[in-house]
Design a protein that fits this description.
The complex is a heterodimer of chains A (171) and B (374). Chain A has a two-stranded antiparallel sheet with strand order 1-2. In chain A, 58% of the residues lie in helices and 8% in strands. Chain A folds into 2 domains: 5-105, no CATH class; 109-170, no CATH class. Chain A has 171 residues and is mainly α. Chain B has 374 residues and is an alpha/beta fold. Chain B has a single domain, classed as Alpha-Beta Horseshoe (pyruvate-formate lyase- activating enzyme), CATH 3.80.30.30. Chain B is built from 12 helices and 18 strands. In chain B, strands 4-5-9-10-11-13-14-18 form an 8-stranded mixed beta sheet. In chain B, helix 8 runs parallel beside helix 10 and helix 10 crosses helix 11. The two termini of chain B are 37 Å apart. The mean pLDDT of chain B is 90. At the A-B interface, helix 6 of A face helix 9, strand 16 and helix 10 of B.
């Protein structure tokens, strides 16, 4: 009989100290069998070893349910693309590690985003506004926050945004 | 007219439903394939074959064929038209005369679409033509474009069905309505004794040889598709090319540039009714099956894809705009008359690549003008 994805994961962890932790994590996060469909792609002991090591880090960092699954799938991709221990660089810091994983899986987009971020952050955004570079799905851009209290504020902000538009056009 | 056995599409098993036993297609299948692989089954056999497929079942579904009758409505709007809020759609309509494909492209959307564990050929084409005839009587002057290559390749199994011949003869009676065969095969000889006309378009999904070799398994190679297109052109058929899906790879500019140059050298804008351009896109749920079937070394499964409008995974919007604009401009640099447009794209992408939406482009206005809903 074919093992379920969850059974298979626990079987792979059988001989490690991870099994109890994995069990608790599955219970706590209410992980379903269908959530782990991507683990069916793992073919050999080395791939499973890397995957279980990643599970341990994700459990220790207390990723949310959706973040856990998102990064486990991404890590599975990386393993199947031939990455090994490089996956675990920067794993001392959650933010640095997830950024590192994104860079490994999406290298060209990460490079383009960095370039765009540098370009956008140098633009003369309105004084006092807050900018935050973000990727939302297939689009990357700046989230701009402004606090306007008067018509004069608004006129200044619009004029600053006109300068931003001109600089974007010139570049 | 019978093709040699070694060139026929390969099936391990062919089932014929009782309702289709006396059909022309069933007779032809019995002529072309060995009796040992053919079995007659009851009309409800298909019900036992429904359900979601795993990767292995999907592979097997390409090698098993069922001839049966279709019980629903043959004539439908293109799926792009059902997402009018997010996509700019070109009013394409589809006539599905079967489902599944005997070729094997890594990006194929059928991997998340089909739920029957075998390839199907519908034997009641006369009913489909009757449906069309009613539509044509209702809207005789509307320029409907009807394609048969939506959930099955229009021509790769045509040596078995010979449906192209019936469709060509039917559409030639109604010159305002346009029929489009869409294929990645080079199977055209079976209808070339029939002269072409301006409302019969034979079209090819086309990619650079590098992408075809890597991702479009079991399809005709680039030079074979070009040769087949030339044969159709020489018999008076209109052509179309779908540079779709464009697949990003390090040499994409060189390879897609060379492809456009090849098409622009071999054909003229007058011979090619439409060039549609699209980039790789697929439903998120099909990613697991693609990875299982093609591994992570494929340009498609290893691609950098992100959720986009309409829920499909696509390349980064800026990269997409760059790729679409590159091919579009390359055609236009050869000759302004090339009639190129983007397939299943958002208005934002049209504007970022061309600063216009299709209704603002003279030669595309007709294609994108809303038509009556059917």
């Amino acid at each position: 009989m074919k093992l379920t994805n969850l059974d298979h994961l626990l079987t792979q962890a059988e001989n490690s100290s991870l099994k109890e932790q994995l069990h608790a994590w599955i219970e706590a996060k209410k992980i379903k069998d269908s959530d782990l469909v991507f683990t069916q792609l793992l073919q050999n002991d080395l791939q499973w070893k890397l995957f279980l090591k990643a599970c341990l880090i994700i459990i220790e960092f207390r990723f949310s349910y959706s973040e856990s699954l998102k990064y486990l799938e991404l890590i599975t991709d990386l393993i199947l693309m031939g990455h090994d221990e490089a996956i675990f660089e920067y794993n001392f810091d959650q933010n640095k590690w997830t950024a590192h994983l994104q860079n490994l899986r999406y290298p060209q987009t990460s490079q383009r985003d960095d370039h765009l971020k540098n370009r956008l952050e140098k633009l003369p955004w309105p004084y006092g506004s807050k900018t935050k570079f973000e990727r939302r799905g297939d689009r990357a851009g700046i989230e701009l926050k402004m606090f306007i209290t008067s018509e004069a504020d608004l006129i200044k902000a619009i004029s600053a945004l006109e300068r931003v538009k001109e600089q974007i056009r010139e570049s | 007219m019978n093709p040699s056995a070694s060139l026929l599409p390969q099936f391990n098993k062919i089932y014929i439903a009782e309702c289709s036993v006396k059909s022309e297609v069933a007779n032809r299948v019995r002529e072309l394939y060995p009796a040992e692989i053919i079995q007659i089954v009851s009309n409800d056999f298909i019900d036992s074959q429904r359900g979601p497929m795993n990767a292995q079942e999907f592979n097997e579904s390409k090698k098993t064929l069922l001839l049966t009758e279709f019980k629903g409505q043959f004539f439908k709007r293109c799926p792009g038209a059902t997402q009018k809020k997010t996509l700019t759609c070109c009013n394409y309509h589809v006539l599905n005369l079967g489902s599944q494909c005997n070729m094997n492209c890594s990006y194929c959307y059928l991997q998340s679409y089909l739920n029957t564990k075998m390839s199907l050929i519908y034997t009641n084409i006369d009913q489909a033509l009757g449906e069309l005839e009613n539509m044509i009587k209702e809207f005789p002057n509307h320029p409907f474009r009807v394609g048969t290559g939506e959930i099955i390749d229009s021509l790769s199994l045509d040596e078995i069905t010979l449906y192209s011949r019936k469709l060509i003869q039917f559409f030639q009676k109604y010159p305002k309505w346009v029929l489009e065969f869409k294929t990645k095969s080079n199977k055209v000889d079976q209808f070339l004794d029939l002269p072409g006309s301006d409302n019969i378009v034979v079209s090819w999904s086309i990619n650079p040889a590098f992408v075809i070799n890597q991702e479009e398994h079991g399809t005709a190679r680039l030079h074979e598709r070009i040769e087949a297109a030339k044969k159709c052109r020489d018999r008076g058929y209109k052509l179309a090319f779908h540079v779709d899906p464009m697949i990003y790879h390090p040499d994409w500019k060189k390879n897609y540039g060379d492809l456009v140059d090849l098409l622009a050298t071999e054909f003229t804008p007058e011979q090619v009714q439409i060039i549609s351009i699209g980039t790789l896109r697929y439903q998120p749920e099909q990613r697991h099956m693609m990875k299982e079937r093609f591994g992570l070394k494929s340009l498609v499964t290893s691609a950098e894809m992100f959720p986009s409008e309409g829920n499909k995974l696509r390349y980064d919007a800026t990269l997409r705009g760059e790729m679409l604009q590159f091919v579009y401009k390359r055609f236009k640099n050869h000759n302004e008359k090339w009639n190129a447009f983007f397939c299943m794209e958002t208005p934002e992408t049209w504007i970022s690549a061309l600063e216009k939406v299709p209704m603002q482009i003279g030669e595309l206005k007709e294609f994108f003008k809303p038509l009556p809903q059917v």
